[in-house]
Amino acid sequence: xxxxxxxxxxxxxxxxxxxxxxxxxxxxxxxxxxxxxxxxxxxxxxxxxxxxxxxxxxxxxxxxxxxxxxxxxxxxxxxxxxxxxxxxxxxxxxxxxxxxxxxxxxxxxxxxxxxxxxxxxxxxxxxxxxxxxxxxxxxxxxxxxxxxxxxxxxxxxxxxxxxxxxxxxxxxxxxxxxxxxxxxxxxxxxxxxxxxxxxxxxxxxxxxxxxxxxxxxxxxxxxxxxxxxxxxxxxxxxxxxxxxxxxxxxxxxxxxxxxxxxxxxxxxxxxxxxxxxxxxxxxxxxxxxxxxxxxxxxxxxx
Length: 302
Fold this sequence. Notes:
Layout: E1 7-11, E2 17-21, H1 25-57, H2 60-84, H3 90-95, E3 97-101, H4 109-131, H5 133-136, H6 142-156, H7 168-173, E4 175-179, H8 189-193, H9 217-220, H10 225-236, H11 242-258, H12 270-290
Helix pairs in contact: 1-2, 2-4, 4-6, 10-12, 11-12
């Protein structure tokens, strides 16, 4: 099996099974390399600023500040960006990968902090011993450096030895690294129905039938483009199968609760509810995009 053929499966909050292409080891290494370059560049800039300031006020007084700044940058870089950029660092964004919650929920700050704190043990401590062993451990025996090198090598190669390509930090934090999904609005399901008869219409009526269930802006602001795509995938499945009926029921109940919809939706009208919600949500997102307001998913800012 080639690396690109590996897909990671999670169950989203709406009860729909989702599969993402796993980030390859090469992509993860490339992203980490870009982030390391930016990290060291940041440290270099801070060092230059402190040296310039030290020429005026005295270098000794700024050594402590420099150490604190270096510690914060080194340990906060990955966590800061992954928390504020929805699981992506600059390196990951350039390569096109991101961190997601392994259970299908929202990526929590605690999980991000856990996966990045483990990096201290995975990489930074043994790497420091390798590069600056004389300063960290004066008189350290040769076997200590060999052990540090073996430690770094084994942990860096850990993703090769488990089926989901997880590093130790992912295992502890409950996260996965996947390819960034392309969030673009696909052709409208309702419009496509006129050109693709195989798409099922609710109750034998055209998909463009007048909406039975109205939705407010507050209802539609809950979700984004990604959730619209997931809903479309559910509606496009074969209508006569048991799996389709179960998926429709599960998703309808989740959405009904999530948007706090106050109108009762009978079981036999759940698919009509989803189709009306799909049509309204798509129109809502397209209108916002006309004004430059793009909502990638439900975790993005409204």
